[in-house]
Request: fold
Amino acid sequence: MSNQKNTARMETADSSPANYFKFLGTAGARFVMAKQLRASAGIYLEFLGNRISLDPGPGTLVRMTKSRPPIDPSALQAVILSHKHLDHSSDVNVLLDAMTNGGCKKRGVLLAPAECLAGSDSVVLRYLQDYLERIEVLKPESNYRLGELKIRTSCRHDHEAETYGLIFYLPETTVGFMVDTKFFPELLESYRQVDVLIINLVRAIKTEPDFIKHLTVSEATAIVKELLPKQVYLTHFGMTMLRADPRKVAERMSQETGVKVVAAYDGMTVALP
Reply:
């Protein structure tokens, strides 16, 4: 943990930097989430003046208000869902309610796949959708904007739900969030030009028969070797990853790839250029 804290100090300003993201939670999959072995609150971003909640899973509202410094959910400008699964979306409705002051202010943007918004398994309440200034339906390899911030979706991921990764374009760097997916070769092209890559790494090893649609350590290592980003952060850990110790996994990946790989922990803040 001391190494992790030192890393955080190097990458975190004394006050909130202009562009940064914070791991409110690093839990992945149902058991780590249910037992709260790691928090499951997704990631908070401040990019080019936009305050964004990405994949607000269980406990996001609490983690925001207990953050140091506190994050005001009513000051959010956008919420983004990569897909509808519970560990990525359970707090979406309470954040939308807070962001719009309970519907008193028609403001804020929601970006989400169509599955999240309509149908029998939709996760965003209908009445809250009417509170928002704008809803953007995520589609594969498409461009979106929040003010000056350009966002692009990846190809559709190979996952049980309609799922897209996100790439954010900042003046000095490009940040990619490779969310839940099984590996497939076409995945690489969506993240080819990313400088900082955040990988959801649920599994330490592959199992047979392999029906779980999440990346393994060997697959993530191959991805990093191929893409060679400047920096990689691992998050969204399942039980096998916790047993393997994410910090040790990251150290081995750094040695194998020549790229600096860091295992995120709850509350870790990463400042960007």
The domain at 2-271 is CATH 3.60.15.10 (Metallo-beta-lactamase; Chain A). The radius of gyration is 17 Å. Residues 1-14 have pLDDT under 50 and may be disordered. The chain has one domain: 2-271.
